[in-house]
Amino acid sequence: GDSVTQMEGPVTLSEEAFLTINCTYTATGYPSLFWYVQYPGEGLQLLLKATKADDKGSNKGFEATYRKETTSFHLEKGSVQVSDSAVYFCALMGSNYKLTFGKGTLLTVNP
Amino acid sequence: NAGVTQTPKFRVLKTGQSMTLLCAQDMNHEYMYWYRQDPGMGLRLIHYSVGEGTTAKGEVPDGYNVSRLKKQNFLLGLESAAPSQTSVYFCASTLTGGDTYEQYFGPGTRLTVT
Fold first, then answer.
1. Which residue of B has its CA nearest to A94?
2. What pLDDT is recorded for position B99?
3. Is cis: bond before A10, omega within 30 of 0?
4. CA distance to partner chain A, nearest, from residue B16 (Å)
5. Which residues in B lie closer than 8 A to residue A37 (C-beta atoms)?
6. Contact call for A34 and B105, based on CB within 8 A
7. Of A18, B27, B32, B42, which is least surrounded by CB within 10 A?
8. What pLDDT does A58 receive?
């Protein structure tokens, strides 16, 4: 079945540091890939997505590229802010319209 | 446009009690989902629905039932609550078609079973 493996946290960075959160997946066919973010006490919000190989999703300074050859969708940001502190989830959606999530990575950014 | 709403936001139950969680969406979405979120486990799919009057089991359906009598509502029921069902429950919906597969999430319901 489908599965998503993402970097275990927690990740603690200083403001303006570079962020990478690794995500790899296993799926049949051609899934769509997503990064969701969950701020404390809130539900999940879509951060970015990519629907086919080599697509780059981007939003709020975050980027991720759909790499079919390495089955990866790593999240990056060049300069993190304190307000980026949250839990980040990598997910895939196959042809059955069901999302499969990774376990989440807690990011804390210190001033 | 309220998006996806969930009722209630918090609930405490005793073991063996029953309750129903309500999810409502005003986006005319076909698909709706119920997840539970537990520490270190990510989100796991409980049940989902691909349209009014239809439901299907997800990854962890045991101990839960669902109903989708109206397109905009998706109810999650616990007939006899157990401490293992202590969790945060999220509802989501999605519009199918094209490449728009984004799931929109509600704010969650925090359930504690004692």
1. B101
2. 56
3. yes
4. 27
5. none
6. no
7. A18
8. 97
The total number of residues shown for chain A amounts to: 111
Q: Are B2 and B26 in contact (CB under 8 A)?
A: yes
Residue B59: closest CA among chain A residues belongs to which residue?
A100
- How confident is the model at residue B75, as a pLDDT? 98
Question: What DSSP string runs through B42-108?
Answer: EEEEEEEESSTT--EE-SS-TT-EEE-SSTTEEEEEESS--GGG-EEEEEEEE--STT--PEEE---
Lowest mean pLDDT among B13-27, B71-85, B93-107: B93-107
Token code pair at residue B98:
């094209």
Q: A31-40, A92-101, B56-65: which has the minimum mean pLDDT?
A: A92-101
Exposure string (b/e) for A68-101, b if CB count within 10 Å is 16 or more?
eeebbbbbebeebeeebbbbbbbbbbbeebbbbb
Q: Express each pLDDT in A29-71 by its tens digit.
A: 889 999 999 998 888 999 999 988 999 999 999 999 999 999 9
Chain B neighbors of A103, CB-CB under 8 A? 40-42
CB-CB neighbors (< 8 A) of A45 in chain B: 105
Percent residues over pLDDT 70 in chain B: 96
**Res B113: pLDDT:** 97
Residue A7 CA to residue B50 CA, distance in Å, equals 32
Scan for tokens 């999605």, then name that residue. B94
Is the confidence at residue A26, as pLDDT, over 70?
yes
